[in-house]
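It is time I had a proper look at our fold encoding. Can you supply me with one protein entry, sequence and fold together? It will help me judge whether the discrete encoding reads sensibly. Leave the record below and I will have a look:
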Amino acid sequence: MMRAPGQDRKGNGKNMERLDKILALHSVGSRREVGALVRRGSVTVNGLPVKKPDVKIDPERDAVCVNGTMLSLHSRVVLMMNKPAGVLSASRDTRAETVVDLLPAQWQRRGLFPAGRLDKDTEGLLILTDDGGLAHRMLAPKSHVSKLYEAELDKPATAQDAAAFAAGLQAGELTCLPAELLLPEAGGATVRVRVCEGKFHQVKRMFHAVGKEVLRLRRLSVGGLWLDPALAPGEARLLTPEEIALIFDSAFRLQI
């Protein structure tokens, strides 16, 4: 049985907000534009057409569709994206495509931003959210949240390079904290490196400091959260609370 818009199962009416306000906050349009969508019959709540734009809904529990597309109206959104190369890690840019531009309509909302950027030509795991507190906790130095990258180099790294990374090194004017360089058992120029910082071009500059150049860079994990292999480049999905907790798994902190 379908629930009417905003109908609470216990009848207590908690967490209720105006539909037009919620849709405006999620970039569907201005309140006037939302009103026009409602009058055209383009908005449904829990499968029922909405008659008035000021109807109260529960954004955490009511299913809202606009022009047949289900919207995600969670109070906070945390997404995992497989970032492709050539796209900016930014909310918006007038000259280039951003990671937010790649998101489908149901996750387009004001205040969404990448929590920890990747360089334009770097690929892999990127977290996008509108939860400033979560992002601050992720990026705070005291959290020691590690990031694991896979790097294709112009020549193989050595045990001496690994020792230099572990000791912390000077990359030009950049002072880098100790990092873990993982060399492949079979040899070759593809390595993994785990860092607990996110300074500008840091991984590339660290390899340059030991005489290597990065040809391709891909982030595999943040803390204990690994990139979902089912995500194609440019695709994204919501994270579960359990997956969010993995970001802060102490087993993946670097000892510095």
Notes: The CA atoms of residues 60 and 182 lie 43 Å apart.
